[in-house]
Amino acid sequence: MRFGGLLLALIGLLATRCLAEPESVEVTFHTSPPGARIYAEISGTRKYEQYLGRSGEPVLLDLKNLRGRTSFRVVFQLEGYHDRVETIGNYYFNDKARYPEHGAVALDPVHPLTPLVHFGRAHPGVAGGLAALLAGAVGIGLQRARALRARLARGRLLQQYEARAETADPRIMSLLGGYRILEKLGTGGMATVYRAVPDGSLDEQASVAVKIIRPDGVDERTIGRFRREIRLCGALQHPSIVEVLDSGDQDGLLYLVMECVEGKPLNDVIREGGLDPERALEILKSIFSAVAHAHGKGVVHRDLKPANIMVGADGRVRVMDFGLAWGLDSPALTETGHALGTPLYMAPEQVLGKKPDFAVDQYALGCVAFELLTGRPPYQDSEEISVIFRKMNDPVPRVSDYRAGASRALDEAVSRMLAREPAGRYPSVAEAGAALERALSGAS
């Protein structure tokens, strides 16, 4: 009986403790200097797993994620300082609302002048005077004083970027291959694209687009496709192809750095009823020239469509996203019957999963030309399977069916590009482009 009573009392204590245990707690982390980003590493597999907030400010710590663990790690990150990792016992915050219990976690500066830079951020009014005073005191001269002011200006610029950053994404404001990531531009099937600036200048006029392969669910085929994109795009130098500037692999992240095109995709430019022949010809000449250049390098794009063609604010046209590009010397990367591309613009043989060649790009360009001139793709349906069925069975549509006054020559040029069999198309994209130009030059 006595043992049973003790057991019941122990169970009661444990139950009371569980019931009283809070779901979350508000705590404050202190660092020297303050303002460091705080990340909780719960699983032990990712260094910047959960963003909590900044040191010196109250943050909410979710205790549910800590149950069943004896400890967790906290990473303090501050520009100009080495990352500081602290291991904290699981129940430390049961009776404490700050860390550490006394004082602050000292961050180690990358450079001896780093603390001065942070002082300049906190006291911009005295930063310039302090820089001049230090220059005179130690005799470092005008050149070093100028460099110091540049560091202070850089610190202020970083602070401005950080103030408008999306803190939910841990890659924002991080450094990747010499580029400072500022914002997310979009996410595709296998990668996320960010806008970034060179870390040396932080100049937004020199913004680039950084395409990072997404680490979640990546397999060897996806990695191979991304590496192929890097290799093939690096060989393409053309004013109407988005230029590849750099690429690399940092901490397991594959990335591709491209010029950042300010403008809109071609599908946003196309209006109902299509563009006038002069503007359509101007755009199509740039696209055909770019694709002909890629073909000359042995590269098949495989996913040409209005969404992958950018029209810059200056009117310049650029073909982008060679994520599905194929070199004619590439090994087979898809199983038989597995097609890659966008059904509205895919050639019939591509739908069937046959090995792509230059003819699939010509077919896609025929679809793009048709849409530019009529305001709609040649085969349109709400269901992809219906689009594919119509490509395989319906007669090839004519531009004149949807655009009054279209010439017979224009009908013939576009229809030949859309021939169901590759042998029925033009021998090359260059010849198709020339025929289309002749037809449009005489179009009304």
How would you portray this structure in words?
The protein is an alpha+beta fold. It has 4 domains: 87 residues, no CATH class; 50 residues; 85 residues, Phosphorylase Kinase, domain 1 (2-Layer Sandwich), CATH 3.30.200.20; 178 residues, Transferase(Phosphotransferase), domain 1. Helices cover 36% and strands 21% of the residues. The chain has 12 helices and 20 strands. The strands form 6 sheets. It has a 6-stranded antiparallel sheet, covered by helices on one side. Strands 4-3-6-7 form a 4-stranded antiparallel sheet, with no helix packed on it. Strands 5-1-8 form a 3-stranded mixed sheet, with no helix packed on it. A hairpin with a 2-residue loop joins strand 10 and strand 11. Helix 7 packs antiparallel against helix 12. It is elongated. It starts with a helix and ends with a helix. 30% of the residues are buried. About 5% of the residues have low confidence.
